[in-house]
């Protein structure tokens, strides 16, 4: 079977303008969550969020101003920054003359940038259609990010987009992996992006699933696994991987970060306790088991889990689902951590950013700490030992890791990643 | 309206639609500059420029006429022709 490896990565996250800065933040547990005045001004109760510091130098360095002048949607800009970084990190060259028939991309997002929608709606409602200009469609379409990235890098294989709420990022990388494994492309850029968007976040705020009471201590606000967790913290950004066949990676002597060995996505069908907003436990367990089977690995071989773990009341249930799926409890449970304690929940970008972080941990042989959970929720400790939840950074040679995300609509995605062995 | 005046107004419109990389061309601006090859203006930019021309010169440009806009000279010719037609009407 075709083996698929990761040869390049790019990221723009609440705690990193690029891959190097993100890696340093992971190593030193730098929080990217800050108080944002504009969230307070519009009346949100949760006024802290993980909003990336935008640095588009990489775009200005590699492309003409006419290539990038019309990128006004934040999610598209983030995707372009991360994709270009991943491309260069993989040692690939940007060919401005012909398209690369062997390479495609899949970049997902939950929605287009609603600030752009707002401009269109205001102009149309004010009967100012002539002032719309001609550039909104490319900024509004869900495929806007994959389309722009494909144009910048000249990708000539399949270029498409996915959207599965908070499972989007992990699903996009699974889909990219599956497409290469099917033999239809040698290389795929895969990942996802999310705009910082108060028009979306205010709805979560009203659903009472964003954390309240931490506006004065932003870095303490995202508390997955904790008894004092009060909800998730919204975030934004993008993570993009260059996936390619092991054969082409070896041929061009590329650096190999890790190997993708399997993945699975499914739905709980909104049955047996599942709903639009809550997962069917059986669906989650089946998803994890499906990834193990696809990767042909045994549960006891899993060293690390990168959880979905958003800091809502669903965290103890997620831990129970992992325990049931792996058949491992208490001290036999693998290590588990969650990046969301540092950057919040980047929604459709969460999976891809968290996979970048997981691969950095596999590559550099460490496990980052879980922040803000000294007071582990008692229901979590019914299933796993506290030692499985690192409170400090640990040096660790991770051989095999699992990453899962679960999204509204009762959709699930789990991916299996392995340290590369020739 | 003299061509010199049309050119001056047109240049101001154009500046709003070209990228920084192409701004240097304004130092040696001439009517032979190609919209696509020299000024990196694509078909969607052209529509935006047409909208600005229509508003600025108070003229209407048809879809057929838009297709003929390939360089600076063709834009100036069209503006002059349209203004002249208005005078004759």
3D structure, described in words:
The complex is a heterodimer of chains A (about 425) and B (about 90). With about 425 residues, chain A is α/β, with parallel strands linked by helices. Chain A has 2 domains: about 5-260, Peroxisomal Thiolase, Chain A, domain 1 (3-Layer(aba) Sandwich), CATH 3.40.47; about 260-420, Peroxisomal Thiolase, Chain A, domain 1. Chain A contains 16 helices and 14 strands. In chain A, helix 5 (about 75-90) packs parallel to helix 8 (about 145-155), helix 9 (about 170-180) packs across helix 15 and helix 12 packs across helix 13 (about 315-325). Chain A is globular and about 60 Å long. Chain B has a single domain, classed as Non-ribosomal Peptide Synthetase Peptidyl Carrier Protein, Chain A (Orthogonal Bundle), CATH 1.10.1200.10. With about 90 residues, chain B is mostly helical. Chain B is globular, with a radius of gyration of 12 Å. Chain B starts with a helix and ends with a helix. Chain B has 5 helices and no strands. Chain B has helices at about 5-15, 20-25, 45-55, 65, 70-89. The chains are: A alpha/beta (about 425), B mainly alpha (about 90). The interface of A and B includes residues 65, 69, 131 and 133 of A.
Features of the shown structure:
heterodimer; A: 422 residues; alpha/beta; Peroxisomal Thiolase, Chain A, domain 1; 10-stranded mixed sheet; two-stranded antiparallel sheet; 35% helix; B: 89 residues; mainly alpha; Non-ribosomal Peptide Synthetase Peptidyl Carrier Protein, Chain A; 5 helices
Q: Care to give the gist of this entry?
A:
The complex is a heterodimer of chains A (422) and B (89). Chain A is built from 16 helices and 14 strands.
């Amino acid at each position: 079977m075709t083996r698929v490896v990761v040869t390049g990565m790019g990221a723009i996250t609440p705690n990193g303008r690029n891959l190097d800065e993100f890696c340093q933040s992971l190593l030193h547990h730098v929080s990217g969550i800050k108080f944002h005045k504009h969230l307070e001004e519009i009346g949100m109760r949760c006024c802290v969020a993980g909003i990336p510091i935008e640095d588009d130098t990489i775009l200005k360095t590699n492309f003409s101003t006419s290539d990038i002048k019309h990128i006004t949607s934040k999610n598209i800009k983030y995707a372009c920054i991360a994709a270009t970084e991943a491309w260069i990190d993989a040692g690939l060259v940007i060919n401005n003359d012909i398209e690369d028939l062997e390479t495609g991309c899949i970049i997902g997002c939950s929605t287009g940038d609603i600030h752009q929608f707002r401009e269109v709606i205001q102009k149309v409602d004010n009967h100012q259609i002539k002032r719309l200009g001609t550039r909104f469609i490319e900024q509004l379409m869900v495929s806007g990010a994959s389309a722009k990235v494909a144009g910048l890098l000249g990708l000539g294989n399949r270029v498409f987009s996915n959207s599965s709420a908070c499972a989007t990022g992990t699903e996009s990388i699974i889909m990219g992996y599956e497409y290469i494994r099917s033999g239809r492309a040698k290389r795929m850029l895969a990942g996802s992006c999310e705009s910082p968007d108060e028009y979306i976040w205010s709805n979560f705020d009203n659903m009472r699933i964003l954390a309240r009471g931490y506006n004065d201590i932003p870095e303490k606000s995202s508390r997955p696994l904790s008894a004092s967790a009060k909800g998730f913290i919204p975030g934004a950004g993008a993570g993009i991987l260059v996936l390619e066949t092991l054969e082409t990676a070896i041929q061009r002597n590329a650096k190999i970060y890790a190997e993708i060995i399997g993945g699975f996505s499914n739905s709980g069908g909104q049955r047996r306790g599942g709903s639009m907003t809550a997962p069917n436990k059986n669906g989650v367990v089946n998803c994890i088991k499906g990834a193990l089977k696809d990767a042909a690995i045994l549960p006891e071989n899993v060293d690390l889990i990168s959880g979905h773990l958003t800091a809502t009341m669903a965290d103890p249930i997620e831990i129970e689902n992992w325990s049931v799926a792996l058949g491992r409890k208490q001290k036999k449970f693998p290590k588990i951590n969650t990046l969301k304690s540092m950057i919040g929940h980047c929604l459709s970008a969460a999976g891809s950013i968290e996979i970048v972080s997981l691969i950095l941990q596999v590559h550099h042989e460490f496990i980052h700490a879980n922040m803000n959970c000294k007071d582990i929720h008692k229901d979590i400790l019914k299933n796993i030992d506290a030692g499985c939840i690192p409170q400090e950074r640990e040096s660790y040679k991770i051989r095999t890791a699992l990453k899962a995300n679960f999204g509204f609509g009762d959709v699930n995605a789990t991916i299996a990643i392995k340290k590369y062995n020739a | 309206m003299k061509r010199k005046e049309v050119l001056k107004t047109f240049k101001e419109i154009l500046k709003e639609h070209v990228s920084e990389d192409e701004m240097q061309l304004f130092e040696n601006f001439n009517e032979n500059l190609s919209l696509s090859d020299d000024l990196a203006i694509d078909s969607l930019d052209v529509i935006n420029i047409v909208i600005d021309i229509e508003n600025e010169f108070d003229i209407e440009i048809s879809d057929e006429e838009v297709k003929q806009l390939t360089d600076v000279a063709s834009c100036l010719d069209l503006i002059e022709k349209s203004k002249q037609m208005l005078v004759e009407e």
